[in-house]
Every structure is written in C-alpha cells, then in structure tokens.
Specification:
With 512 residues, this protein is of the alpha/beta class. It contains 16 helices and 20 strands. It has three domains: 5-184, 3-Layer(aba) Sandwich (Rossmann fold); 193-385, Rossmann fold; 404-499, GMP Synthetase, Chain A, domain 3 (2-Layer Sandwich). The chain binds xanthosine-5'-monophosphate.
C-alpha cells in the first residue's frame, strides 16, 4: 500500500467523501472511518496525517460525537474542518460558543499572512453556527471571516479551518489540503495509476495462491471490465475465467459489441446466451423489486449452470466483483449512530455463498474516476471506459410494468436513436447517463390520417459526479425536437415523447 496514507475521521458531514477524493487527486491514498475508529487501528494504519471532518452537531451537545484529540495528535499531524476545528479547539483547551451570526454559504476570509499561492482574501464556503471564540494555548487564529469570526487557526502540528476546503465553491480549497499533505505532513505523492496498478496486482497475487482460480462475471461495464483485466494481468489468463451473460436486457447490439471490445484485452472469456431464461423469469412481474429479485435469482442459476464444468476442471475458489469504495465506506450518520452504506444493487449478490466461493474485490478501495484511470493504464479502450453506467437489471427497470419481447424492442430501438443523437452532437461524454423509459401509459395521437393510441416514452439524461446526486441535462430544444421526431416516426408503438426534468434527489436516476 502507498506509504503516504491519510486517515479521515467522519463526524457526520455530507461532504466527507469529497475530502477523500480531493486527497486522492493530490496523489495520496486516503481512507474514511467513523469518528470513533479505534486508536489501535489508527496506529496500525500509520497515517501521515489525520483529518477531522465536519459534522452537523455542536461540540457541546450531549450526544455529539467526541474524540480524544491529544491521542490523535500523538499519531500524526491534524487538520480539522468545520466541526473538526471546533472539536480540536474544545479538546485542547480553547473555547467554542454559539454565534449570533450564522455563516452559511459563500463568505470571504482574510488570511493574516500569505498562505502558499492563496489570495489573502479567499472566497470560501461555510456552514456553521458555533465559532471558536478563543483558540487553545499554543494556537493562533490566522484567518477571519467577514463577520470577524475565527476562520482558521494553527499550531505546530495542527491546522484547522472553519470553512470547507473540499468543496468546489471554496476557491483554491485544494491548495490548503495540498499544503497540509505536502508541507505539514511531509508526504510523498505516490498515488498514481501506474503505482495503483502495480499495488493491486501484487495484492491479488498474494491473495490468490498459485493453485487457485477465479471466476469473473462481466457486465460490459467499466468496473467489472477493469477487474477482469487486472486479475488476468496479475494471475494469468488460465486462472481467470470470465463469463458474460446475455440476459436479453441489454441495449441494441450491445452483447456483440461488448464481446468485440473485450477481444483486445485477451481475456479468457465465454459469452452465454440466456435471454430466454430471463424473459421467462420476468413474465407477469410488474413490481420493480420483484423484477430485480427474479433477475438476480436467474443470474445465479444461469451462472451456476454454465460454470459447473469449469468448477469440475479447475480449482476455482474465488468470485471477482467490481465493488467500489463508495459502497464500502462505513460512515457516521448523525441521525442515529454509525451506519453502513450498503450496496443496494448487488448484481452478483448471493452468488459467493451459493457457490461457496470467496470474494475478491480488487477495486474496493477506489473511486469510479480512479477505476477509469487504471483502466486506461491497463489498456482498455476509451469506448469501454467512457461508457455510461448501465444497471445490472438492464432495460427491465426502464420498462415500467411487465417486460416482454415487444416492450424490450420498443425501448431498445428508441434508446439507440437517443444515444446515437447524443454521439452525433458530441454530447455523450458530457452526460453521466442517458436512457429511455417506456411507460405503461397509452395516449391518443394522430399519424397520417389515422388516430393512434400508443405508448409514452420518457427521455432521461443526467449529469453527476458519482450517481449519488444528479441533475437533468439542459438540452437545446431543437435537439429534443429532433430526437422526439425520429423516435415517433421510426418506432411503431410510441406516439409521444417526454423529457424528465427531475433531479436526484428527490427522484432517483432510474425510474424503478
Ligand atoms: P438510482 O436509480 O438509484 O441509480 O439513482 C444510481 C445508479 O445506479 C444504477 N442502478 C443500478 N445498477 N443494479 C445496478 O448495477 C441495479 O439494480 C441498479 N439500479 C440502479 C443507476 O443506473 C445509476 O447509475
């Protein structure tokens, strides 16, 4: 693992993940743990620096998350952000009080002395009610906000800021994090794609003994493809058995084009046509969760069946999965104790237990953008790496109501038109995800001289950083008009097209 490791203790802020991302962008490895992560584990992690995140509580509230700051300080230099700054102040003998002027949103802070390349007047983003009235002994206040409150303080081994350097609204916020990492903690930046690939390969080689083989279920998406390429490089083609199941819920021509794309990676891969099994399992189902469950179960059955020969022939002990870091972060929820973010979309859920396989998750410490970067390092094509995320249950959750061959054909054709338009207009890479949703609603239309009574199709296109929150994409009206015209002209069965203008939250990205 990287020598320059940073630990982020989470006190319940919505922004904690952003701190981890910013540190990794700077080029150092970082992990998030709940605020009460044990001292022994922290010492064993050997962090170069520790960051105390923000949080919604007040340090003097009875139930607020507390932490012995002196013991942390004996392990590594500290950076406190917002609540983190107040906790440091309180714990080390300073004074924190409620403020009459709450500071929310944009603010400008004035630094007492120059701070690297930061402007002396820096635009920042704040969200706090309490303020540090008196810093602890040995500290100086080195920046103040517009209303004169302490905006930053420092001592020999501790820096603290009342604003949020991790958010984009704080100008040059990353400079502060970078300076903490490089200057105060004297860390080396060694977290880069070649280094990550080397580490992950070594880790997989240690984890899987030479006599053991791995099964890898491919979805055609970025994560599982990177996992397959990585493990193949680490363990050799003979020991990594990849299976790509055509569940009949893929987009137009997707099965063939994905298999074609995989050719360049020289994987030991087998395509399996199981369209009929999935359609049969989905027959008569309309409830979204019932559909997901039926697909999950069918996937397990098909996978078990098609790999039974492999299991007899080879010593397969592992199942590879493309779990990402946001799915495993255990963070502190201010609304009721520590909570675990659980992956709700477990595409191979149940498989490892059923097949009695151990789970290997080589990219579980990485964010999506890092997976893309190491994919590039491993030689995956831009086409594969830039592919929009596609859910495991595929088009089935984009057909509201029952899934059958007719509805699949409609949504598949419409989707191809929409996506081609995006590509033709150079919009595909600007959008996180775009797709069509077929609604179980018929409306009256007129085509030629005749009255029609056909289905409604919704277009959805969103921008997002990580799929957790999302905004709808502001297309030009002409673009929407062209897509709508082409779909209603070319796809018999759809007579009306609407555009979904709902962000996440309150909606989710998919409709089911
Ligand atoms: P939602 O709809 O929850 O989606 O806002 C967030 C992201 O997850 C994808 N998604 C899934 N992916 N299996 C998956 O592999 C699923 O069951 C599933 N449901 C949603 C969705 O496409 C978006 O990228």
């Amino acid at each position: 693992m990287s020598e320059s490791r940073f630990l982020i203790l989470d006190f319940g802020s919505q922004l904690t993940q952003l701190i981890a991302r910013r540190l990794r962008e700077i080029g150092v490895f970082s992990e998030i743990h709940p605020f009460d992560y044990s001292l022994e584990k922290i010492q064993a992690f050997r962090p170069k620096g520790i960051i105390l995140s923000g949080g919604p509580s007040s340090v003097y509230e009875k139930e607020s998350p507390q932490r012995n700051v002196s013991e942390l300080l004996r392990v590594a230099p500290l950076l406190g952000i917002c609540y983190g700054m107040q906790l440091i102040a309180k714990e080390l003998g300073g004074e924190v009080t409620p403020s009459s002027t709450r500071e929310y949103g944009a603010n400008v802070v004035r630094w007492d002395e120059s701070f690297g390349s930061l402007p002396q007047l820096q635009k920042v983003w704040m969200s706090h009610g309490d303020v540090v009235k008196n810093p602890p002994p040995g500290f100086v206040i080195n920046a103040r906000s517009e209303s004169g409150h302490a905006a930053a303080m420092k001592s020999n081994r501790v820096w603290a800021v009342q604003f949020h350097p991790e958010v984009a609204h704080t100008e040059q916020g990353s400079e502060i994090l970078k300076s903490f990492v490089l200057d105060l903690c004297q860390a080396e930046t060694d977290w880069n794609p070649p280094h990550i690939v080397k580490e992950l390969i070594e880790k997989a080689q240690t984890q899987v003994p030479p006599s053991e083989h791995v099964l890898c279920a491919l979805s055609g998406g970025v994560d599982s493809s990177v996992v397959a390429a990585l493990l193949t490089k680490a363990l050799g083609k003979d020991r990594v058995h990849c299976v790509f199941v055509n569940n009949g819920l893929l987009r137009k021509n997707e099965y063939d084009s994905v298999l074609e794309n995989y050719k360049q990676l020289d994987l030991n891969i087998r395509g399996v046509d199981a369209q009929a099994d999935f359609l049969k399992a989905l027959k008569g189902l309309t409830d979204p969760e019932a559909k997901r469950k039926a697909i999950g179960k069918t996937f397990i059955d098909v996978f078990e069946k098609v790999t039974s020969e492999d299991l007899k022939k080879h010593n397969i002990c592992w199942l590879a999965q493309g779990t990402l870091y946001p799915d495993v972060i255990e963070s502190f929820s201010s609304k009721g104790g520590p909570s675990q973010t659980i992956k709700s979309h477990h595409n191979v859920g149940g498989l490892p237990e059923k097949m009695k396989l151990k789970l290997i998750e080589p990219v579980r410490e990485l964010f999506k953008d890092e997976v893309r970067k190491i994919g590039k390092e491993l030689g995956l094509s831009d086409q594969l790496l830039g592919r929009h995320p596609f859910p495991g249950p595929g088009l089935s959750i984009r057909i509201i109501g029952e899934v059958n061959e007719t509805s699949l054909k409609l949504v598949r054709e419409a989707d191809a038109i929409f996506i081609n338009h995006l590509r033709d207009h150079g919009l595909y890479d600007k959008i996180w995800q775009a797709f069509c949703v077929l609604l179980p609603v018929r409306t009256v239309g007129v085509q030629g001289d005749g009255r029609t009574y056909e289905q409604v199709l919704a277009l959805r296109a969103i921008t997002s950083q990580d799929g957790m929150t999302a905004d709808w994409f502001p297309f030009e009206f002409e673009f929407l008009r062209d897509v709508s015209n082409q779909i209603t002209n070319q796809v018999r069965g759809i007579s009306r097209v609407v555009y979904d203008v709902t962000s996440k939250p309150p909606a989710t990205i998919e409709w089911e």
